[in-house]
Structure formats: structure tokens, C-alpha cells
Amino acid sequence: MPTTAPSTTAERGVGGTPLSDVTASDSALRRFLHGLPGVDAVGLEARAASLGTRSIKTTAKAYAIDLAISMIDLTTLEGADTPGKVRALAAKAVNPDPTDRTAPRTAAVCVYPDMAATAAVALAGSGVKVASVATAFPAGRAALDIKLADVRDAVAAGADEIDMVIDRGAFLSGRYLKVYEEILAVKAECARADGTDARLKVIFETGELSTYDNIRRASWLGMLAGADFIKTSTGKVGTNATPANTLLMLEAVRDFREQTGVQIGVKPAGGIRTSKDAIKFLVLVNETVGEDWLDNHWFRFGASSLLNDLLMQRQKLSTGRYSGPDYVTVD
Q1: What is the C-alpha to C-alpha distance for residues 258 and 244, in angstroms, rounded to an integer?
Q2: SS (H, E, C) the chain
Q3: Exactly one of 92, 129, 231, 280 is catalytic; which is it?
Q4: What is the pLDDT of residue 3?
Q5: Which residues contact 70 (CB under 8 A, 6 or more apart)?
Q6: How far apart are CA 67 and CA 256, in angstroms?
């Protein structure tokens, strides 16, 4: 499995420019981000659509379904969440199909910070990670000290991964250094004394960023600040993950690794509900960044209902019969 290069981003810089110079001031950061190549929207959408038409054969489809299951952050982010619901979701993450023990486990269970401890106990020893949203998810409208306390609570409760939201208001008004420094501060709160730091996923809420150019800038901003993953969406707005915005983010992590030697993960979230959808995204990964990212350490799906459809399609490939939703557990 590829890992982050020994040289840090700070040491190597980007495009031959030391990171300390790129992030020295708001004006320097703005100059760098606005100096990124503009996005050809028509070309981006055409390529995403073209890749989505690729035909997947039966053997490859079975592999893709199992891979997609292993990449899911099985998610419940509702005001009505209870410890019982979280424990049930954790059990499903560990054993997605009680009728077939060969079904892979999901990558993680994603919950609010106050449910992280419950999830950690339920998943102990399973290999399934505890992910927790934080920083006043989903709007991110809170003072920095409150956001950082949110992260500390989640990490202390046993979260292996933190999904933070950026301040879209600051980003859209051009206050890039504020967003950068906030991500840095959250990253620092992910540290643990024993060295088992929580991995940080930075959510852009692409549906609110308006343009592809903004999504490219947000991707680079998050990576410069130390994100372990860049993530499309919260799943709480009208436009979430799309093939086009995910393709753009995949191109960004590819280019970032070429320039810095540092590999960053990608997580599309929201609106990915069917096996067909998931396989289209896996084709995007394979064709854009290659096999290095075809692993749940580097690519995730943020989803709740996707797992059920993957399990039904998996059963169909195995038995030749379509079982229907009554044959999978209710989330």
C-alpha cells in the first residue's frame, strides 16, 4: 500500500515554492490558489460522463462490489440517533450480511461526537474505524474554540478519524488563510500522545462552492493544510458528490502527489445510493489516479443506504436471484 513520502509537504513545497512562502499571508495564498489552472467545465463533465459508461464484466463486478463495501463509512448523522442505533450500525459494519460471512467489513462507522464512545466500544478489536464529524457539522457556524473542543471530545472518546467542515463563508469571501489556519488547528487536535493520531477528512461542501475553480482551490487549500482526506460534502445539502466534482478532486490529489510526494485520500459523500453509482466512482478512481488509491486507506464512500444495494447485488451475483430489500438488515 502506498504511503506518504518521507519528505513532508512543508519541506518539499509545491511547484518548487516552499510551503512557508505559499502560506505566508492571505495575499500569497490567494496568489497561489488563483494561479492554479482554470477548470474546463465542459471537458470535466464530458470525461466524467464518458467514464461512467464503462462496461464492467461479471468477475470484475463482483470484485468492485466487495471493494466498494470495504470503502464505506457507514453513517448515521440524525438528531434521533440513539446508542442502540449506533450499536446496531456497528454490528452491521462488522458483519454486513449475516447469511454470508465472506462479505467484507466496511471501513468505518461515522457518527456525531457524542456517539463516538458508543461506537468505539461496539467496534473494539474489529478493525472497523470510528469516524466522527466535528467542527459544528454540518454548517460549521461556531467559534474556533468551540470547534476545537468538538474535535477534542471526539478524539478522546475514541474516534480514529475526524470529518471536519471548512468555513465556507470565509472561503467564499476570499479569506483563505483563515480557512488554512483553522484546518491546521483541527489537525493539531487530532494528535494523540501515543502517536496514533486521528486521520483528518476535510469537507468542502462542494454544492455551496458554486464553481469548479473553487472546488480545485479548496482541494489544494485542504491538502496544503495537512488533510489526510478531502471530502466532497456533508450529505445535508441539495448537491453532494457528483462524478464531475469527484473527478476534479481526484485530479487534484494526483497532481499534489506528483509535486510533493504526499498521497491524500478522497471521500465522495451524499447521493451515492446504488451499486451502479459506486462502480462508476471506482472507475473514476482507477482511470484517474490508478490502483494506488483503490484501497480504503485512500478512498471512501460516505453513505448510509448504499450498503444495502451492494449487498443485494452481491447476493444476486452469488445465487442468480434478486433477493430484494427484505433480505438485508434495516439500518
Answers
A1: 21
A2: CCCCCCCCHHHHCECCECHHHHCCCHHHHHHHHHCCCCCCHHHHHHHHHHHCCCCCCHHHHHHHHHHHHHCEEEECCCCCCCHHHHHHHHHHHHCCCCCCCCCCCCCEEEECHHHHHHHHHHHCCCCCEEEEEECCCCCCCCCHHHHHHHHHHHHHCCCCEEEEECCHHHHHCCCHHHHHHHHHHHHHHCCCCCCCCCEEEEECCHHHHCCHHHHHHHHHHHHHCCCCEEECCCCCCCCCCCHHHHHHHHHHHHHHHHHHCCCCEEECECCCCCHHHHHHHHHHHHHHCCHHHCCCCCECEEECCHHHHHHHHHHHHHHCCCCCHHHCCCC
A3: 231
A4: 39
A5: 104, 105, 106, 107, 296
A6: 25
**Residue 267 bears catalytic tag:** yes
The model's confidence at residue 265, banded by pLDDT at 50, 70 and 90, is very high
Check 187, 201, 267, 280 and give the catalytic one: 267
For cell 442502540, name the residue. 84
Entry pTM: 0.93
Q: What are the residues whose beta carbons fall under 8 Å from the beta carbon of 128, sequence distance 6 or more?
A: 90, 93, 94, 105, 106, 107, 108, 109
- Indicate if the pLDDT at residue 5 is higher than 80: no
pLDDT in tens, 271-324: 999 999 999 999 999 999 999 999 999 999 999 899 999 999 999 998 877 666
Distance CA 2, CA 191 (A): 22
- Looking at residue 324, its pLDDT comes to 62
d(CA 226, CA 43): 29
- pLDDT value of position 14: 76
For 83-135, what is each residue's pLDDT tens digit?
999 999 999 999 999 999 999 999 999 999 999 999 999 999 999 999 999 99
**Which candidate in 73, 160, 163, 255 is catalytic?**
163
Average pLDDT, the chain: 92
